[in-house]
Amino acid sequence: MTATSASPLLAIRSLRAAYGKIEALKGVDLDINPGEIVALIGANGAGKSTLMMTIFGKPRARAGRILFDGRDITDLPTHQIARLRIAQAPEGRRIFPRMSVAENLQMGADATDSGEADRAAGLERVLTLFPRLKERMAQRGGTLSGGEQQMLAIGRALMSRPRLLMLDEPSLGLAPLIARQIFDAIRTLNRQDGLTVLIVEQNANHALRLAHRGYVMVNGLITLAGTGAELLQRPEIRAAYLEGGRRA
Amino acid sequence: MGDGVTTAAPALTQIPRAPGIAFILKKALISALVALVLFSLMIGIRTEAGPTGQLIYWTRFGDLAAMVAAVFGGSIIVELLRQWWGPVGTIRIIPPRLQSTLAVARRGIAPVLLIFTFLVPVIFYDQRYILDLGILVLTYVMLGWGLNVVVGLAGLLDLGYVAFYAVGAYSYALLATNFGLSFWVCLPLAGILAAFWGMMLGFPVLRLRGDYLAIVTLAFGEIIRLVIINWQSLTGGPNGVSGIPRPTFFGIPLVPGPDGLAAKLGIEFSPTHRIVFLFYLILGLALLTNWVTIRLRRLPIGRAWEALREDEVACRALGINITTTKLTAFATGAMFGGFAGAFFATRQGFISPESFTFQESALVLAIVVLGGMGSQLGVALAALTMIGGFELFRGLEQYRMLVFGVAMVLLMIWRPRGLIGHRAPTVFLRHSQAISSDLVKEGHG
User: Reading across the β-sheet that carries A221-227, which strands appear in turn?
Assistant: First the structure.
């Protein structure tokens, strides 16, 4: 477990966001320290994905602040936030189906004006992490299997050599074995490259086992926070997310 | 019980056969019946106003019978063709030898077509009609390639593309007639003005997609046309602009007399020189469009256009600047439309709002869609077939459009992604793999 340093890489302070009149985030506080994996768990509609998207500038925050590496990014346009090397693998993978795997990966590097050497190094890293993609480079994204598409979505995000990687439900719709491979890859990235990761998940068990720390979100508010192991032991977590709500 | 087993076995292994003769006849009969009901009024009875305004009608049962018989026979033929063709959407095993021949043909078609186009003025020097037709086809190839940037690459459905064609044409016409500027000065200006109006259209539609975008662009095309009609003091309104100067060979006019190009080159003057010059001019402009598009596709901006077509949400998640991506697509497409417009004005010598109706937009869009969105060669082939086809079937008069409609429907059934629906990737690896794209073709869509 990483030591809680004084300056978190990402600090969110009483963040509020809304879709029209419906308030999705009602004052969220969250810290992500450098080199940490943080899991954000919660039920459908709790505001997890909204939080991730608000960090990226769409929807805009109504109130509160988002600090990345000490810098206020609350009002920056999305493409400038990406340029600070925050990358995102959106929910449902959303790869470009008619473009080849190689082109999909290049797209990830395009947003951050990385040079040729950076691109080559990024590609090398992605392909050692997901050797399956290497065999598929010339193939169209749309012809990949679900697991391979998720690998591609993460690989695409990694191509910008991010300092913070945000993953929205990477295990969505994947077979348990494939989901485990994805989680293993995230762990490898964190251990070997020291990559900071925010992972939004419904699969609380997997996510909390993987994460150093976790936050539980209910109706636009953070209700619980703690280390992954602590949260896994909490009876309310076990009841709500791990045992199908049997004792709730 | 062995008897039962042996009789059951062939039934299990039997592959479902094609529907029999009874099915075909039944289907043809139903089609004929529908045709009978429809045509009994449309063809069976002919009405006309008599000399004093009274209704005269007479029956044409012979024609009706012939039509119904044609539908009956046609239905049988279509069904037989379908059985011969086999089910649609299955993977056909093509023998490797034929496959390699096809691959060679596919690679060869573009250079062969290009060389042929370069030779057209030489081969058909004496046939003014063919040269004029060639110029027309090339104009539409250029318009198709220009719109291809917006629709084919960036996936922004633009139904008002003719607006930029009009802006380009009027820019040149007005600048040349009012200020006496030469074609070569006006050409970039026309492109810049059209690009400017492309941005003007782009800003309000940044947040629109699909149907909504199509409606706004359609309206934009109409607005430009209506402004041109009604701003009489500037554009001459419905009377148009006449006396637009002909293009010069970089300052040397193509006229008879001592100043003309022919005299300078020491050859005899011929009016065909100008036609040939116009042919190579539009060919050059079209190739410029093609070259710029191909170059842009390999740059991040071109990749961003294509990514935008694929998935706008994913683009945003990757931090691609959607605003600049969309605006550059609109501006680039509009600029080529403006070039084509300036060429149109100098070629015709006269322009009026009638040349810039929605029909033109629809025609160019049809060329892009039929050609296979995003495919440069496909768009060129589609322009050749459509514009050439229009001319070819001129003898059929009012049935021309019918032939055309049928051809389009058939094409969309057999090639739903357009003539050339295959998309060539722009990023290559150092050691490229030998995975043929044909092996990994997606389903229809």
Answer: A86-89, A164-168, A196-201, A37-42, A213-218, A221-227
Task: Report chain B residues whose CB lies below 8 A from the CB of A56.
Answer: 316-317, 319
Bridge-partner residues for A17, per DSSP? Answer: A25
pLDDT category of residue B439 using cuts at 50, 70 and 90: very low
Q: Tokens for B426, please give them.
A: 């722009």
CA dihedral B167, B168, B170, B174 (to 10 degrees): 130
Closest CA to A206 of A236, A239, A171, A175: A171
Q: Is A43 on the interface with B (CB under 8 A)?
A: no
A130: closest CA of chain B, how far (Å): 17
Q: Which residues of B touch A135 (CB under 8 A)?
A: 433
Distances (CA, A) of B244 to B248, B257, B365, B430: 12, 20, 28, 53
Return d(Cα A164, Cα A213) in angstroms, integer.
Answer: 15
Out of A82, A106, A143, the one facing B427 most closely (by C-beta) is A106
Q: Which residues of B touch A98 (CB under 8 A)?
A: 306, 310, 423, 442
Do residues A29 and A12 make contact, with C-beta atoms less than 8 angstroms apart?
yes
Is there a contact between B213 and B362 (Cβ–Cβ < 8 Å)? no
Chain B residues 264-303 within an 8 A CB cutoff of chain A? 300, 303
Report the pLDDT averaged over residues B421-431. 65
Pairwise CA distance, residues B415 & B369, whole Å:
11
Direct distance between the N- and C-terminal alpha carbons of chain B, in angstroms, rounded to an integer: 51
Contact A79 B313 (CB under 8 A): no
Please state the rounded mean pLDDT for residues B282-296.
95
> Which residue's structure tokens are 């006309």?
B48
On the 0-12 / 13-18 / 19+ scale of CB atoms within 10 A, B268 is exposed
Count CB atoms within 10 A of the CB of residue B357: 15
Query: Nearest CA of chain A to the CA of B416: how many Å?
Result: 15
- What's the pTM? 0.81
Q: What share of chain B is helix, strand, coil (3-state, %, to 5)?
A: 70, 5, 25
pLDDT bucket at B132, cuts 50 / 70 / 90: very high
Using the CB atoms, write b or e for B135-169: b if 16+ within 10 Å.
bbbbbbbbbbbbbbbbbbbbbbbbbbbbbbbbbbb
Q: Using an 8 Å Cβ cutoff, are B160 and B364 in contact?
A: no
CA–CA distance, B149 with B332 (Å, rounded to integer): 7
Contacts of B299 in chain A (CB under 8 A): none
What span, in angstroms and rounded, lies between the C-alpha atoms of B367 and B260?
38
Torsion angle, alpha carbons of B353, B355, B358, B362, to 10 = -160
Retrieve residue B64's tokens: 């009706």
Rounded to two decimals, the ipTM of the complex is 0.88
Check CB contact of A127 with chain B, cutoff 8 Å. Answer: no
Q: Which two tokens stand for residue B392?
A: 């070819």
Instruction: Write the residue in A98, A108, A139 that is nearest to B318 by C-beta.
Output: A108
Answer whether B306 sits within 8 Å of A99, measured CB to CB.
yes
pLDDT at B5: 44
A91 touching chain B per CB within 8 A: no
Say how many CB pairs under 8 Å bridge A and B. Answer: 97
Distance CA B430, CA A116 (A): 14
Cα B222 from chain centroid?
A: 20
A110 Cβ under 8 Å from any chain B Cβ:
yes
Q: Tell me whether residues B318 and A100 touch, CB distance under 8 A.
A: no
Q: Which residues of B touch A108 (CB under 8 A)?
A: 318
Q: What is the mean pLDDT of residues A57-82?
A: 92
